[in-house]
Protein: dTDP-4-dehydrorhamnose reductase
Amino acid sequence: MKVLIIGKSGQLANELLTEKPNTIEILCLGRADVDITMYESINKAISDFQPQVIINASAYTAVDKAESDQKSAYSLNQHAVTNLAKSAKQHQVRLLHVSTDFVFDGNNNKAYLVDDTTNPTSVYGASKLAGEQEILTLHPENSAIIRTSWLYSSFGNNFVKTMIKLMQERDELGVVCDQIGCPTYAKGLAQFLWSLTSRDVINQHYHWSDYGVASWYDFAVAIQNTAFNKGLLTKKITIKPIPASSYPTPATRPTFSLLNANESYQIKTSNHWAEQLEQCLTNLV
Ligand SMILES: NC(=O)C1=CN([C@@H]2O[C@H](COP(=O)(O)OP(=O)(O)OC[C@H]3O[C@@H](n4cnc5c(N)ncnc54)[C@H](OP(=O)(O)O)[C@@H]3O)[C@@H](O)[C@H]2O)C=CC1
Ligand SMILES: Cc1cn([C@H]2C[C@H](O)[C@@H](COP(=O)(O)OP(=O)(O)O[C@H]3O[C@@H](C)C(=O)[C@@H](O)[C@H]3O)O2)c(=O)[nH]c1=O
Structure:
């Protein structure tokens, strides 16, 4: 089977490469190779490689920056997705597209189901939702939208690496304790995506996160303890739980964005997020 991955330098694309099953032939393209905002460019890449599956691991993921750069966010998170969906449909290729917990407004008090009402609170979330809708309109027969949350990896930039850096530089850190979700190791998501490539029939929507629940503060404390135990930090600093109101950001993030991924766990099991974090930091040592 031939699989085309878009978003070469991102954390998910790198984990997809490390987790690649032996039977798969991969072409992984980045923005230096293809301009997915131009239909002709992505259509040519698909025409040339003739994949059976495309995994879109590219996105505009700078949540705060998106508030003042809507054009770029929509260009990649909606218009490029339109191009991918159109070309995938034309070539009868399965499209696996990754989306986010930030499509929800966070007012739920139980984990979000795939068909719960979406209502993004940020430009990033709204642009990702627009991308989801393009896929369901243009190529509903053979596409899946896989929403995930709080993704991190030993590759690329993410909350785990930001925290370790700040913990090396500072004596004290305030971290938001009233936004709840679930950290997700991109390696597990990559394995789940590989499972979907070979299934005869796929759903239109999946949720994927690691097991459990956390606030950003809980996550930061676990990052410090785990990184310290592994020798990635030489000292521990004070981490204070703070309300989101004390950490103003351009984008409004959901207060509660836990995803109900029980259906996905029938396909592939995961682990508690703290065990996954331990695994990731082992790979960082
Ligand atoms: N990060 C997170 O916390 C979460 C992410 N997600 C979703 O998961 C998916 C993967 O995210 P993640 O691996 O973190 O993303 P990254 O930000 O690590 O990587 C995204 C990649 O997209 C490509 N890209 C960025 N801008 C452009 C552009 N203007 N033109 C073309 N390509 C561009 C880049 O690859 P290259 O330069 O090689 O083209 C970049 O490395 C995305 O759909 C994201 O929305 C969902 C929930 C949480
Ligand atoms: C750096 C820092 C952040 N925070 C807070 C801000 C915010 O509420 C929370 C997370 O901040 P970040 O900006 O690192 O994470 P953010 O980029 O908002 O993470 C999101 O990225 C997109 C791509 C997604 O799809 C989401 O699932 C989610 O992972 O932590 C602190 O409280 N203290 C700090 O020192």
In short: The chain has a mean pLDDT of 97. The longest strand covers residues 94-100. The domain at 2-158+183-211+257-271 is CATH 3.40.50.720 (Rossmann fold). Residues 76 and 237 are 38 Å apart (CA to CA).
